[in-house]
């Protein structure tokens, strides 16, 4: 996508870039088995980079911090960020490869299974965050995840909190977290699996999601947002508990980028000054479009496309 929207509201994202290697097939092979696939694609990915692309296409002024290798995948990364108008704070590490991800996509349902090797981004540390403190201080929103080492994510949240910047923490992939990390999070955005890993509550209903979200609040989170796939997303805070239904934008082709699209869109909307529920609706609409397209970063829609979905939904609701 070469058309860049007018930027509004700075979002700083700390995370990893990987090149996605996506295979489509009727099913996963068993151990020791080889099966025929139906399609293959290579493109930009990585949770942090995907969120950066989603936020940039949604109109945010995005700064993305990571590490990459001095290789062909690193060149793809830099070309992607340049095309999307993303300011890259990317350190090149000569003796390590750029990250890569194997993505299996079920050709019937669009559901996926992913293996990520972070490569150079797996060596990120608190020093990477210290180097972009000025960028964070000038931002409205700071976003991070857990594909890079936890100490880097923690420092990012600490620096953002020190400068009064809104913090959005996407705890993916799920892992045990220290108790003192939760109070650094204005917003936490797990999916059902991640929410269960953090709280011990299996998410099989909206009520389950509310129980898990309440436990996250008790740990010190400002607002918990649990994404629920086809059921939408639940925002739960001390002030309100709101379920935003999913947007049906067409046939589901691939779900791999949906969570990143939601988080990137949510951050972009917050950075423009949207209230949390409005920002969550924007993120849900963006994710609803992304699942109708193949790929992760390539599936992210433009600001005008998201606004059209929201406009159509508003008109339908008024009839």
Enter the CATH topology name.
UDP-N-acetylmuramoyl-L-alanine:D-glutamate ligase
Approximate shape: globular
How many domains comprise the coordinates?
1
Order of helices and strands: EEEHEHEEEHHEHEEHHEEEHHH
Average the pLDDT over all residues and give the rounded result: 94
Low-confidence stretches: 1-5
Q: What's the architecture, going by CATH? A: 3-Layer(aba) Sandwich
Which range best describes the helical content: under 10%, 10-25%, 25-40%, 40-55%, 55-70% or over 70%? 25-40%
Placed side by side, the strands forming the largest sheet appear as 5-4-1-8-9-10-11-12-13
Q: Count of helices?
A: 10
Number of DSSP strands? 13
Determine the CATH superfamily.
Ribokinase
Strand content: 15-25%
Pfam families: PfkB
Domain Carbohydrate kinase PfkB: 10-302
Subcellular location: Cytoplasm
Family: Belongs to the carbohydrate kinase PfkB family. Ribokinase subfamily.
Lay out the secondary structure.
Elements: E1 10-14, E2 18-25, E3 39-45, H1 47-57, E4 61-69, H2 72-84, E5 87-93, E6 98-106, E7 112-119, H3 126-130, H4 133-137, E8 141-144, H5 150-162, E9 166-169, E10 187-188, H6 192-199, H7 206-218, E11 223-227, E12 233-237, E13 241-244, H8 258-271, H9 276-290, H10 303-318
Parallel strand pairs: 1-4, 1-8, 2-6, 4-5, 8-9, 9-10, 10-11
Antiparallel strand pairs: 2-3, 6-7, 11-12, 12-13
Helix pairs in contact: 1-8, 6-7, 8-9, 9-10
């Amino acid at each position: 996508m070469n058309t860049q929207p007018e930027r509004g509201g700075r979002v700083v994202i700390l995370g990893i870039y990987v090149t996605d290697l996506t295979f489509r097939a009727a099913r996963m092979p068993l151990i020791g088995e080889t099966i025929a696939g139906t399609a293959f694609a290579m493109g930009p990915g990585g949770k942090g980079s995907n969120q950066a692309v989603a936020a940039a296409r949604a109109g945010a002024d995005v700064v993305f911090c990571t590490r990459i290798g001095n290789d062909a995948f690193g060149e793809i990364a830099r070309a992607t960020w340049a095309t999307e108008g993303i300011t890259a704070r990317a350190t090149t590490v000569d003796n390590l490869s750029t990250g890569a991800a194997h993505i299996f996509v079920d050709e019937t349902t669009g559901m996926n299974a992913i293996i990520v090797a972070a490569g150079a981004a797996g060596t990120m540390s608190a020093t990477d965050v210290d180097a972009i403190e000025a960028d964070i201080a000038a931002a409205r929103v700071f976003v991070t995840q857990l594909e890079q080492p936890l100490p880097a994510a923690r420092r990012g949240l600490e620096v953002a909190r020190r400068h009064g910047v809104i913090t959005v923490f996407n705890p993916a992939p799920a892992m045990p977290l220290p108790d003192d990390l939760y109070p650094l999070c204005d917003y936490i955005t797990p999916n059902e699996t991640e929410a269960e890993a953090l709280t011990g509550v299996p998410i099989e209903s909206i009520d389950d999601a509310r129980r898990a979200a309440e436990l996250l609040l008790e740990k010190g989170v400002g607002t918990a947002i649990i994404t629920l796939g086809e059921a939408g997303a639940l925002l739960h805070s001390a002030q309100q508990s709101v379920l935003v239904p999913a947007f049906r934008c067409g046939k589901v082709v691939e779900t791999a980028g949906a969570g990143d699209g939601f988080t990137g869109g949510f951050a972009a909307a917050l950075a423009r000054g949207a209230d949390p529920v409005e920002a969550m609706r924007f993120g849900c609409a963006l994710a609803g479009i992304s699942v109708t397209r193949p790929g992760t970063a390539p599936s992210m829609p433009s600001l005008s496309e998201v606004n059209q979905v929201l406009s159509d939904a508003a008109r339908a609701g008024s009839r």
